[in-house]
Design brief:
The complex is a heterotrimer of chains A (about 260), B (about 250) and C (about 270). Chain A has helices at about 5-30, 40-50, 55-85, 90-100, 110-120, 120-145, 150-160, 165-200, 205-215, 220-245, 250. Chain A has about 260 residues and is mainly α. Chain C is α/β, with parallel strands linked by helices and about 270 residues long. Chain C has 2 domains: about 25-90 and about 170-265, Rossmann fold (3-Layer(aba) Sandwich); about 105-165, no CATH class. In chain C, strands 6-7-8-3-9-10 form a 6-stranded mixed β-sheet, sandwiched between helices. The radius of gyration of chain C is 18 Å and the shape is globular. Classes of the chains: A mainly alpha (about 260), B mainly alpha (about 250), C alpha/beta (about 270).
């Protein structure tokens, strides 16, 4: 980053710190009842307390675990199915319209069905998360595989490449930008569904933590939890960016 | 050669028929599945006694109200950020910090502040809608042909006039697209809040049906929710095409 | 040239078996006959150029030779065997080099693709890649991505990948059409020396008459709608060719005139 960009970034941080300061002032003046709005100092204290006495850490790990299992299952299934459907024009014409219809469906509506099948359990949560996370992956992968440059398939034919080689050496790398952007979306969905399922099923996680804090009017704990959820969202997006930049460096080079 | 349109329907119709036949064959008794015929019957029943219409009205009211509130805030900020680059750069970190918070995480805060009902749902929907609209309208304003800005200066338009007569019309197609995408998000978030905790609307109705062990009604609501989402999206796509023509759809992934 | 019957073209020596042979080949796609009754024998090691007005089917003829298309009637044979699928020992150089290279692999990676497919051991690949890149004039560019290379360099990279297949025949579809004149001339000479060294048979499609005469042992001109052979010229110019002296040779100019008249007449 060059000099001026660095200065602007620093200024931006100062502005953000200013907002936090404003928040503290509002809390100190009790313009909003501390039952609803704790000051940043109390929220921070709760965060520290939560991690040192261990409770918040296990909740954090709980949410991350739910997300991880569901998202991972969704990734494998989404990419595999997407590859199959995307590379076959026949399959696409039968399946794609139904998928387009299902695209705007609120995935959380599957939750009652999942509860009916699996009860208020961890498996229900992982099923819901996986179901929700698979859609962006599936749709993005289908698009990626369908959009492979046809000339490359001809090159593959003239080289007499095996089917497996074509999939792994040509189709998959070509579709990887789309797949990665689908993964990014899936992570967002996974986080949201994890929180909802934890609220509903009382599972060990941040969703449950913030709900309990709200019910007992412990606003500092509540805000600490919300901040942590924001941090998860931020860090997972950051991680995806880093992965994308490394895997897709061929895109940024040249013109 | 089967025509493309027919192919699109073969899979869903085939699946429904297969499901119906299987349910009848095994004399299905389940808390989670019901034959398509029972689902259809439950749907009709829900229309007859008006329950589904009330629920739909509630959900759509919250969703649209949230969309308007969040949209207004997002639009105002987005345009401001697009026009004033200094403001944009200064607000970078703040926006980056707040944006990743999942809207659903605000649910407990909204709950203790506003209790159950429309207002808390509208608040959460609004929060979710602010971000796509802010980001896309900022991009829309930044992408305005600089020539037009020069024209507005040459004509010596006052700032409010400049926004009204040049900036908003030029950015309008992309802003409409932003609202279209946000509308989808609004519906999803509204239903999600209802499923999680709020006792109004379609989300609450589907949860109630599940708890009452009525899979036919539950699946009927699921189908209806999907239909509402689809119709909403399609309606907005048609409106977009009608208002702005195909050129406005450039860069649209949906 | 109007309604001349299909010409059966024999190489001057009838003893050698042709490497690539078209026998009464026709191709009809979507109701239109693209090429009709093509009869052609290409000797091993021969450099054959195909020219013709736009839409006369020369690219189609090349793709038939590559077995990317199957003829509707007639057969295309290689070393006597009919070709059902593309062969690894026939390499195709496409005109749109940007689309024929893998953007996510470096230059070395692109060449490696061919080596991997023909089963070269990974320990030997690095040296082969270096050798091939040097041959096409891209030494030291192994780590660059195609997007970082100029048009001429990308086309050379494609040629390197094709040479990695150790092809018996090289099929080139207007490979220099998208490049500027200076790059084109440099690449023409490079192709000539590469082909002379490897002894591969070449079918070279181009719309540039001078290029066809400069490069080829034989030039075939196609008539359009449907594509059929309209003229055959033996190029008796001395090798190795030279951009200046060959192009000023009176025989060169005579051949050029003849082809020019052919194209004019075929477009009429």
């Amino acid at each position: 980053m060059n000099r001026s960009a660095l200065y602007w970034r620093a200024a931006s941080f100062i502005v953000a710190a200013g907002f936090v300061g404003l928040w503290q002032v509002v809390a100190n003046l009790r313009l909003v009842s501390p039952v609803f709005l704790p000051g940043p100092d109390r929220a921070w204290a709760s965060l520290v307390r939560g991690f040192t006495s261990g409770d918040l850490l296990s909740k954090l790990l709980g949410t991350l675990e739910h997300m991880a299992y569901g998202w991972f299952a969704a990734s494998v299934a989404g990419i595999a199915l997407g590859a199959m459907i995307g590379s076959s024009r026949m399959l696409r014409s039968y399946v794609a319209p139904s998928l387009e219809f299902l695209r705007p469906l609120p995935v959380s509506a599957i939750i009652p069905v999942a509860i009916a099948m699996l009860g208020l359990t961890q498996s229900m949560a992982i099923f819901v998360i996986a179901f929700g996370a698979i859609w962006p992956m599936l749709l993005a992968t289908i698009h990626g595989f369908a959009a492979v440059e046809p000339r490359l398939y001809e090159v593959a034919r003239s080289l007499h490449m095996s089917r497996l080689a074509v999939i792994f050496k040509i189709a998959l790398p070509s579709a990887s930008p789309d797949i990665l952007s689908g993964m990014r979306l899936s992570l967002t969905v996974a986080l949201i569904l994890a929180v909802v399922c934890e609220i509903l099923a009382g599972l060990d996680g941040l969703g449950h933590w913030v709900l309990l804090s709200a019910r007992s009017f412990r606003s500092a704990d509540l805000f600490a939890g919300v901040i942590l959820l924001g941090i998860i969202g931020y860090l997972t997006a950051l991680a995806m960016s880093v992965v994308e930049k490394r895997l897709l460096k061929w895109r940024s080079s040249g013109h | 050669m089967i025509p493309e349109r027919i192919k699109a329907f073969l899979l869903p119709i085939g699946a429904l028929v297969a499901l119906e036949l299987w349910a009848r064959a095994v004399h299905l008794q389940s808390d989670s599945l019901a034959p398509p015929s029972a689902i259809a019957a439950a749907l009709v029943e829900a229309f007859k006694d008006g329950s589904i219409l009330v629920a739909t009205r509630d959900t759509l009211t919250s969703a649209f109200a949230g969309l308007l509130v969040g949209g207004a805030v997002g639009l105002a900020f987005g345009i401001a950020l697009g026009i004033f680059h200094i403001f944009d750069r200064l607000m970078e970190v703040t926006i980056e910090a707040i944006r990743p918070i999942p809207s659903i995480a605000l649910l407990p805060i909204a709950l203790i502040a506003l209790g159950f009902g429309y207002r808390m749902e509208i608040l959460i929907v609004a929060f979710a809608c602010v971000w796509p609209i802010l980001i896309l309208s900022r991009a829309a304003v930044s992408a305005i042909e600089p020539r037009l800005i020069e024209v507005s200066r040459a004509l010596r338009l006052s700032p409010p006039d400049r926004v009204r007569k040049i900036i908003i019309p030029a950015a309008l197609p992309r802003i409409f697209l932003a609202f279209r995408l946000a509308a989808g998000i609004a519906l999803i978030v509204a239903v999600t809040v209802e499923i999680a905790i709020n006792p109004i609307g379609l989300g609450a109705a589907i949860m109630t049906a599940q708890q009452a062990l009525r899979p036919d009604l539950m699946l009927a609501y699921l189908l209806w929710i999907g239909l509402v989402g689809y119709l909403l999206n399609t309606g907005l796509v048609i409106a977009q095409r009608h208002l702005f023509g195909r050129a406005a759809l450039v860069g649209d992934a949906a | 040239m109007g309604s001349s019957p299909a010409l059966r073209l024999q190489p001057s020596s009838c003893i050698e078996r042709p490497q690539i042979a078209f026998t009464d080949v026709s191709l009809t796609l979507g109701g239109k006959t693209i090429v009709e009754n093509i009869n052609l024998d290409v000797k091993p090691g021969e450099f054959l150029c195909i020219i013709g007005a736009s839409g006369c089917g020369k690219t189609t003829a090349l793709r038939l030779a590559a077995a990317l298309y199957q003829p509707t009637s007639g057969t295309v044979t290689f070393d006597g065997e009919a070709m059902q699928v593309p062969r690894r020992d026939i390499a195709i150089v496409f005109q749109d080099y940007g689309k024929a290279l893998l953007p996510w692999r470096t230059a070395a990676g692109n060449v490696s693709l061919a080596l991997e497919t023909i089963g070269v051991a990974s320990s030997q690949r690095a040296s082969r890649i270096e050798e091939l890149l040097k041959k096409v004039g891209l030494p030291g560019h192994a780590g660059k991505y195609p997007a970082e290379m100029s048009g001429g360099m990308q086309q050379r990279l494609q040629i390197a990948r094709c040479l990695a297949q150790e092809p018996k025949a090289l099929l080139m579809d207007e490979p220099f059409g998208a490049l500027d004149a200076m790059t084109r001339q440099g690449l023409q000479d490079e192709v000539l020396s590469l082909v002379a060294a490897s002894g591969a048979t070449v079918i070279f499609v181009t719309h540039d008459l001078e290029e066809a005469i400069y490069l080829g042992d034989r030039v075939i001109g196609l008539l359009p709608h449907p594509g059929r052979i309209g003229i055959e010229l033996k190029i008796d110019l001395p090798r190795p060719r030279d951009q200046l002296t060959t192009r000023e040779n009176p025989e060169f100019l005579r051949l050029r005139r003849e082809l020019f008249d052919f194209i004019k007449a075929s477009e009429a």
